[in-house]
Each structure stands twice: as structure tokens, then as C-alpha cells.
Amino acid sequence: MRKRLGxxxxxxxxxxxxxxASGRTGRxxxxxxxxxxxxxxxxxxxxKDDPAVGQRVxxxxxxxxxxxxxxxxxxxxxxxxxxxxxxxxLAVCRERxxxxxxxxxxxxxxxxxRMREAARVIPLLxxxxxxxxxxxxxxxxxIAARALGAEGDVExxxxxxxxxxxxxxxxxxxxxxxxxxTRPRVEGNGGYPDADGKSERRPLRPPAxxxxxxxxxxxxxxxxxxxxxxxxxxxxxxxxxxxxTGALQAAAWLIGRPPGRLxxxxxxxxxxxxxxxx
Length: 278
Prior knowledge:
The chain has 278 residues and is of the alpha/beta class. The chain has two domains: 14-130 and 240-273, NAD(P)-binding Rossmann-like Domain (Rossmann fold), CATH 3.40.50; 132-237, Dihydrodipicolinate Reductase, domain 2, CATH 3.30.360. Helix content is 31%, strand content 23%. It contains seven helices and eleven strands. It has helices at residues 24-34, 83-96, 109-118, 132-146, 170-182, 241-254, 265-273, and strands at 14-19, 39-45, 56-58, 63-67, 76-79, 99-102, 124-126, 153-160, 208-212, 218-226, 229-237. Strands 3-4-2-1-5-6-7 form a seven-stranded mixed β-sheet, with helices on both faces. Strands 9-8-10-11 form a four-stranded mixed β-sheet, covered by helices on one side. A hairpin with a 2-residue loop joins strand 10 and strand 11. Helix 4 packs parallel to helix 5. The longest helix has 15 residues, at 132-146. The radius of gyration is 20 Å and the shape is globular.
């Protein structure tokens, strides 16, 4: 019988490739996947110019060789590379009919559209942040945004390590999307004043303020305010384990899902909340 897109291999384990396996988060994903009985790590992928190509990584019981090519059977690829890296591995997955989970941020609108197109033919899930608490934060922010009227204000503050390239973060953008599309449009609720103080109003999308300091992992705050009161939601990732665990949960959940649309973190949370096995 022909194997469906994104289906497990014959052993029942998910044959997994990790792209960006030399990066900060990629190394963490790889280490956790090697220790997870749900997965058989068949490839640890990096760039051609990585001096570590050819080295064996992992523990004494399970390990894999770093390579720049995916030339083995694979059920799903986890991508923690760069926007350009996502496009390269997306093309490979689309050609092979391989499911894909991506945690890369900073994609252009054109690159995001290519992901949406690919999601019509392969199972594909993208999230700016795989920490489980971020999914809970999205739901809480959605509820609070519905309660904002003409007198309410909301702004986002995000903090990351000094080497993070994109600002605001992908998670801050995701939170802003939720607020922008959830906040009621009522008279007098026209948006925010421009930074130069002019009277023109920007759209309802809330501003996001970015801090890039030290080796700070990831923190996001959403501040709501009404006359006489404030409400603040805060999520902080204390280690990259949170992202790695969530990415592997997403990989296990995506296996066997049909293509047709680009899945996101809230799809994963809803599915697991409804008893769908990750």
C-alpha cells in the first residue's frame, strides 16, 4: 500500500531530519529527538560551509553525522535555519513529499506565500515560537483584545539575546496579528498616534518594542490598559528546551495530517486539547 504524505515509517518511529542542527535551537532539538523513542533521527543537516560537517553528534547510544544533504528516507523535517534556509529545505520537502515543521522567523511576505503554496501539497506547520505557554498566551490575549473599547490601549514588549537578527520578533508579530484581527472596531478606536506626534492615526495593530540584550533567551509582555487599571501578560522561556519540546510535539502531531493549509501553533494546541495524540 502506498504511504501517505507525512506518514510514519514501517518501524512506527518517525524518521526525522533536523535542519539547522548546528544552531543554538537546532542543537537542542537534535539532542531531545535523539533521546525520544518516538523518533529515529536519520539526518542532522547544516550548511556546506559548516566546519562540523562530517562529525558525529549525539550520545553514546544514539548519534548521527552532520551533513549538508538529505539523501535518506525521511518522514518529517524540522527547520531551525534561516529564512533562506527554509526556502531551500521547503523545496526539498515539496519534491520528496516530506512533512515539515518550521520555527524560523523573519520570512518576507513572498517567502510566507511560498510556504502557504507548499502547504497545499505537503503537511506543513509553521510557528514563530513553540513554547507551550505561548499558545496559552495567544488565547489569553485574544480574550483581552475582545474587551478593548475606544478607551483601551495595548502595547507589546519583547526581549531577546543581543544576536537575534529580526526585530520585532516573530512571536511579537504573531501576538500583534491576533490583537489586530480580534480587537473590536468601534467609533473612536482608530489606532495609535504616529511616533512624530502628528494627529494622523495608524492602523489598529499595536506597536511592539524590542530589546536586544545579553544572552536573554526570550520574553514577551502584552500590556493592556483601561482608565484606572492595567492588565499585563508575560511569558518567559527559561531555556531552549521549551522550543525544542514544542517543536517535537508539533512534529509528532503533524504526522498523518492532510495538506491543504498552513498549520500553526494554535492548531496544535487545539488538536492536543481535543485529545489528538502528539
